[in-house]
Amino acid sequence: MKLELKRQDFLNAWQIAENFTDKKSAKESTSGILITASDDGRVMLTATNLKTSVCCKAEGVNIIEPGVAVVPSVILGSMLKKFSSDTLSLEITSECGFIKAEKSKARFTIISAEAFPKIPESSSAEEIFNFRASDLARLIAEGSSAASKPDDFPKYLGTCLVRTQAGKLNIVATDGKRLSISKSLCDSIKKETDLLLPSQDFKELGKTLFANYPDKNVKILADESTVWFNLEDIEFSIRSIDASFPSYERILN
């Protein structure tokens, strides 16, 4: 694979993907980012921490030779920041990778593409609702404020409940002592349901939406195990939690 990169444009997409890698994992595959350069001219970056995944289109890329490779996210990200040139050349062979800028050149290791986890696909998922990204980010920040640590028991303590019902969207969390809830009208609801998501991953999604896509519209889809957040040229997925959230309405009534 060989690519010509506009450094800042590519770095923007790389940093979004890097936020959803697992840098502390013993598995190299989840600390890397899958680069897919297709014959159709699209370059997609895919990352996962096994709970949350992202697949986004990288801008500012000219494909010289298509290919697929998994690259350590921190290593290449650091190189992209250090180089000052606006245009870079990225070449990846079966054994290693090279990044070049004018007279500078750096070599890095790669990760086996076969070891990269399979990412859940949304092709058969059901649409739940759609919402403006900045508004959804605000609701996530407000509704998740009482969530506890993800390893607390019972399971629902480290989660956020997303409830759709009769033109209303609620996001709720609790640590067992406090309760936070954000509410909004939502006329795009196609299915009334409860979605239970890990709070830390959901919060990270909200921050990413607010920082990078505030004016975009987000389509939310779900099946029995996963929830997808689909925007133009980028899709996030979060594995849902198999647990029951307490009846918070009783506390409010």
SSE string, helices as H and strands as E: EHEEEEEHEEEEHEEEEHEEEH
Rough shape? elongated
Q: What is the subunit arrangement here?
A: single chain
Task: Tell me the structural class.
Answer: alpha+beta
Biggest beta sheet summary = 8 strands, antiparallel
Terminal Cα span: 60 Å
What share of residues are in beta strands?
35-45%
Count of DSSP-assigned helices = 5
- Quick one: how many beta strands? 17
Radius of gyration: 20 Å
Characteristic key phrases:
alpha+beta, 5-stranded antiparallel β-sheet, elongated
Short description:
The termini are far apart.
Describe the protein's architecture and organization:
20% of the residues lie in helices and 41% in strands. The protein is an alpha+beta fold. The protein is elongated. The mean pLDDT is 93.
What does the secondary structure layout of this molecule look like, with pairings?
Blueprint: E1 2-6, H1 7-18, E2 32-37, E3 43-48, E4 52-57, E5 61-65, E6 67-72, H2 73-82, E7 87-92, E8 96-101, E9 104-109, E10 126-132, H3 133-143, E11 159-165, E12 168-174, E13 179-185, E14 193-198, H4 199-212, E15 217-222, E16 226-231, E17 234-239, H5 249-252
Antiparallel strand pairs: 1-5, 1-7, 2-3, 2-6, 3-4, 4-17, 7-8, 8-9, 10-15, 11-12, 11-14, 12-13, 15-16, 16-17
